[in-house]
Design goal:
314 residues; mainly alpha; single chain
């Protein structure tokens, strides 16, 4: 319970800081902050799998991309209503998660990692080849900001940033409460010892499957927010590079913390923009960061800080 209060306190403090500093920043930096919040939400959803269910995935971008494509297609061809498009994005991510979960949740470790990677690459191939629907490698340009159905114009970057901030807060609080609920605690028990939870009468497969669905729905909603931020979606939003980047965000900040992935997302987004302004080989720099984190911070930045605090308290 203490960890939940700490996570909620840090989350709300971060939200308050963003809300206060947003009007003071230029459009470029507000856009950067908006992108960091969206990817933080994506990384938090992946942390549900990695840190609380114990299922490291290399295909989590599939749900992000499917949510983005569903919202983008609906906006381009049917309606500008944010609520209908968000519902379509989350619904599409849930449908894909329901199918993928049936194929993956009974596995674990490297097998789960490779199967999720293969399934996500199948979706990437479909998006790349189905040009009449997805635009192929050219993607879907021209996606406009949504209509909320009430007097709040989100066409400018500053106004859309506050919309993202509101949903980031709601989703973050919801995930923090989820992981400390009886269901979330049972998921952590499954992560620690499946055999013990089975002996206690828990349906381990059902718990892992429902946790997988929850994570896929949140990732799909992050994709919805991203497609309206970027006003464009392409097969890259389904690819392994995004999945690996999300996993790096989780590992960098610290798994099983929720706040750690927020920190990791902020660092990676800023690092990506800074390094890419000097060289096109910014992915190499991200790879170096990953190696350094695994070697020197295997429990993430928050995990390393926690160990130092505990050692200092002795």
């Amino acid at each position: 319970m203490r960890q939940t209060r700490f996570a909620l306190t840090v989350l709300l403090a971060l939200v308050a800081l963003c809300a206060v500093t947003g009007p003071l920043l230029s459009t470029y930096y507000v856009g950067l902050l908006c992108q960091a919040l969206i990817f933080a939400l994506f990384a938090m959803s992946l942390d549900i799998l990695v840190g609380y269910v114990g299922l490291p995935s290399l295909g989590h971008a599939a749900f992000f991309g499917v949510g983005a494509y569903a919202a983008g297609l609906l906006t381009l061809h049917f309606t500008h209503s944010f609520w209908w498009c968000a519902l379509a994005g989350v619904g599409a991510a849930l449908a894909v998660g329901a199918l993928f979960g049936l194929l993956t949740v009974r596995t674990a470790g490297s097998s789960f990692l490779m199967i999720t990677l293969a399934l996500a690459q199948i979706l990437w191939g479909v998006a790349f080849k189905w040009r009449s629907l997805t635009g192929g490698e050219d993607g879907l340009p021209g996606i406009v900001r949504p209509d909320l159905g009430f007097p709040w114009d989100v066409t400018s970057m500053h106004s859309y940033f506050y919309l993202v901030l509101v949903f980031f807060t709601l989703c973050g609080v919801g995930m923090a409460l989820f992981v400390r609920s009886p269901f979330g605690l049972a998921l952590q028990g499954v992560r620690e010892s499946e055999s013990r939870m089975q002996a206690l009468g828990y349906n381990v497969w059902a718990y892992k499957y429902l946790g997988y669905l929850f994570a896929s729905a949140v990732a799909g909603f992050a994709g919805v927010l991203y497609v309206y931020y970027n006003r464009f979606v392409s097969p890259n939003d389904l690819g392994i590079a995004l999945s690996a980047k999300g996993l790096l965000m989780v590992i960098l900040g610290g798994t099983g913390t929720l706040i750690g992935p927020v920190l990791g997302a902020g660092v990676i987004v800023v690092l990506e923009h800074v390094v890419s302004s000097y060289t096109q080989r910014w992915m190499m720099a991200i790879g170096v960061v990953y190696v350094l984190v695994v070697l020197f911070f295997p429990k993430g930045v928050l995990g390393a800080l926690g160990e130092r605090v505990r050692k200092g308290a002795r």
